[in-house]
Write a structure and sequence with these properties.
It is a single chain. The chain is α/β, with parallel strands linked by helices and 310 residues long. It folds into two domains: 2-114 and 239-306, 3-Layer(bba) Sandwich (FAD/NAD(P)-binding domain), CATH 3.50.50; 117-235, FAD/NAD(P)-binding domain (3-Layer(bba) Sandwich). The chain is built from seven helices and 19 strands. It has helices spanning 12-24, 59-72, 121-125, 135-138, 154-164, 183-191, 286-306; strands at 2-9, 30-32, 46-47, 57-58, 76-78, 82-86, 92-96, 101-109, 113-115, 131-132, 146-150, 169-173, 195-198, 201-208, 212-219, 225-229, 232-235, 239-241, 272-274.
């Protein structure tokens, strides 16, 4: 069995930032990247809203910078998953996919969340070529253009309203004949002059050449199909936090997001800290994830110092 002061589960902005701070604090962190090193940003093309990159940066390139900086301060990277945890305490037991057993004094969770998709083959074809799951991240690239948003909940209405301030026309594609969003969000969408709602409608296909040019819609009541010209297609049907292995150990909400003590990264288990999109269902930005990774490392350092471990 291996023994470590600090184990970080997950990479991405939260995990790598936690590793940078943990390494500088002499915690000798070991980071398990998971199956998607770098997280969702490895699926993102241009990132223009992260400080320090005045000309923008490719998502994978930025995550490579994060990785190098973490390794510079002594982080050991393991390119595999943690598949099982035991947080009975006070030592925390982890099992990797290679069946390695690890004992950790402190654990930082940074497993992130994954966007839910419609499951269309054309979604993958045009991902980062007009298809996105984040209006705040990518809306700027569609200023003055026509775009579509899929979904009927608060996420979809928020995305549509955000895009309505940037885009010429926003088409909101709703599968049912009602919105699941809160009343105030529904009223705002209804009152937005450049948001058009397509009720009882599903997307059949995303079309284009080098980028999205149109989408094929089908009305669920009549069966009629319509080809709608758009430059951007935003899927806003929610996110799924990657937290299933912590069920029964860490308190979480009904959607699976980890709960932390307000203003901290502390969970209900002593010595276990949560950061990034695994515990943030509101902002879900690279910069906020990085900030929470910093918080988790600082909280872990104080926890270990108070016990004389480091």
């Amino acid at each position: 069995m291996e023994k470590h002061h600090c184990v970080i589960i997950g990479s991405g902005p939260a995990g790598y930032t936690a590793a940078i701070y943990a390494g500088r604090a002499g915690m000798d962190p070991v980071l398990y990247t998971g199956t998607e090193p770098g997280g969702q940003l490895t699926l993102t093309s241009e990132v223009e809203n992260f400080p320090g990159y005045p000309h923008g940066v490719l998502g994978p390139e930025m995550m490579e910078d994060f990785r190098k900086q973490a390794e510079r301060f002594g982080t050991i990277l393991r390119y595999e998953r943690i598949e099982k945890v035991d947080f009975t305490g006070p030592k925390h037991l982890l099992t990797s996919e290679a069946d390695l057993e690890i004992e950790a004094d402190a654990v930082i969770i940074a497993t992130g969340a994954s966007a839910k998709w419609l499951g269309l083959p054309s979604e993958k074809t045009f991902l980062n070529k007009g298809v996105s799951a984040c209006a705040v991240c990518d809306g700027f690239f569609f200023r003055g253009k026509d775009v579509a948003v899929v979904g009927g909940g608060d996420t979809a209405t928020e995305e549509a309203l955000y895009l309505s301030k940037l885009c010429k026309q926003v088409h909101l594609i709703v599968r049912r004949h009602e919105l699941r969003a809160s009343k105030i969000m529904e009223e705002r969408v209804m009152n937005a002059a450049n948001i058009h709602i397509w009720w009882d409608t599903e997307t059949q296909e995303i079309r284009g050449d080098q980028s999205v040019r149109s989408i094929l819609l089908k009305n669920n009541q009549t069966g009629q199909t319509t080809e709608l010209e758009v430059s951007g297609f935003f899927v806003a049907i929610g996110h799924q936090p990657n937290t299933s292995i912590f069920k029964g150990w860490i308190d979480m909400d009904e959607s699976g997001y980890l709960l932390t003590l307000p203003g901290t990264s502390r969970t209900n288990r002593e010595g276990v800290f949560a950061s990034g999109d695994a515990q943030d269902k509101i902002y879900r930005q690279a910069v906020t994830a990085a900030g929470s990774g910093c918080m988790a490392a600082l909280d872990a350092e104080r926890y270990l110092s108070a016990r004389g471990i480091i």
